[in-house]
Design goal:
By secondary structure, the chain is an alpha/beta fold. The protein has one domain: Rossmann fold (3-Layer(aba) Sandwich), CATH 3.40.50.720. 42% of the residues lie in helices and 13% in strands. The protein has helices at residues 34-45, 57-68, 85-98, 125-140, 142-147, 178-203, 221-224, 228-240, 245-257, 291-305; strands spanning 3-4, 25-29, 49-54, 75-79, 104-107, 151-155, 208-212, 266-269, 279-281, 283-284. The strands form two sheets. An eight-stranded mixed beta sheet has the order 4-3-2-5-6-7-8-9, with helices on both faces. Helix 1 packs across helix 9 (245-257) and helix 4 packs across helix 10. It is globular.
């Protein structure tokens, strides 16, 4: 059974409630398109400095120009391929060299329902990119977020409600299914967020961890990953059912910079089946609230990426 886990008091949060973000740095993975780009523009318009992290330099340059058109602060980019742990480590080192703090690390980038593929490190592509890459990236940059007493934002999905962590075959080598892999990765995202929040709370850390989801939003996610029937289906449903990427980005902006956003919360659309509508506290599946599963996933993730998170 799904239920809300926080009562933040938001029933229809909108970006016009943002304060002055001048001097604050927002680092967004996948900030070159879709929800990440829209979130970057909202934060930039409120005065924040923006750093987008993505793997395609041409797309990054175009996004920087688009964000800069509405920005009053700085807009920069860094090269990051979440499907390569070496790239994640290199990007983190570059960011640490360039910035003494990060006010919000927004783990936004993701892929969806791809054919069976492997990352550079031999992980199943969806859990490797959506979860493990972000798990390492956030751990490596934790000190920069801590220096700002900032926030770590992790994007999940309503699809987490259908996911299961396959500990006996985490890379789904036996009978791969694109949807099974996607829902597992989105459940992993929210389990990571809640486990991190518990660790931060237990340590009395000034860092907040907040999860969110975009509902069903019209982005490149549905066209660049799914193949065959799924690709054709999304072309139709995106036209008929999806909300805009702008609307889908509002929960991200609330999580990253909204006053009153609570650590350990999960924000998203609250309308029809949580696919669209006013933004507030969203429903969390029972399986996402399982502390034993979250702790086991954390330990397994540390082993897989070869990194032990610093104690908050």
């Amino acid at each position: 059974m799904s239920r809300k886990i926080k009562n933040s008091g938001f029933s229809n949060w909108t970006p016009d409630r943002l304060g002055d973000l001048a001097g604050k740095i927002y680092l967004i993975t996948g900030g070159n398109s879709g929800i990440g780009l829209e979130a970057a523009k909202m934060l930039a318009a409120a005065g924040g400095d923006i750093v987008i992290a993505c793997r395609n330099p041409q797309k990054a340059a175009a996004a920087v120009d688009e964000i800069a058109a509405v920005a009053s602060g700085e807009v920069e980019e860094v090269s990051l391929d979440l499907s390569s742990l070496a790239s994640v480590r290199q990007a983190a080192e570059e960011i640490k060299t360039r910035f003494s703090k990060v006010d919000a690390l927004i783990n936004n980038a993701g892929i969806m329902q791809t054919p069976q593929l492997e990352t550079a490190d031999g992980f199943e592509m969806q859990i490797g990119t959506n979860h493990l890459g972000h798990f390492l990236f956030a751990g490596l940059l934790f000190d920069r977020v801590e220096a700002a007493q900032g926030r770590i934002v992790i994007l999940s999905s309503i699809a987490h409600k259908y996911g299961k962590i396959h500990f006996n075959d985490l890379m789904l080598t036996k009978g791969y299914d694109p949807t099974t892999a996607y829902t597992q990765s989105k459940l992993a995202n929210i389990l990571f967020a809640f486990e991190l929040d518990r660790k931060l709370s237990a340590a009395g850390s000034p860092v907040s961890c907040i999860a969110c989801h975009p509902g069903y939003s019209d982005t490149q996610l549905q066209s660049t990953g799914p193949a065959g029937f799924l690709n054709a289906l999304y072309k139709l449903t995106n036209r008929l059912m999806a909300q805009s990427a702008y609307r889908g980005a509002i929960p991200t902006v609330l999580s990253a910079a909204g006053e009153g956003a609570l650590s350990g919360a999960y924000y998203g659309p609250t309308g029809f089946a949580e696919t669209r509508g006013p933004v507030g506290d969203a429903n969390v599946a029972v399986r996402a609230r399982n502390k034993k599963t979250a702790a086991r996933l954390w330990d397994e993730s540390e082993k897989l990426v070869g990194f032990q998170w610093p104690r908050p």
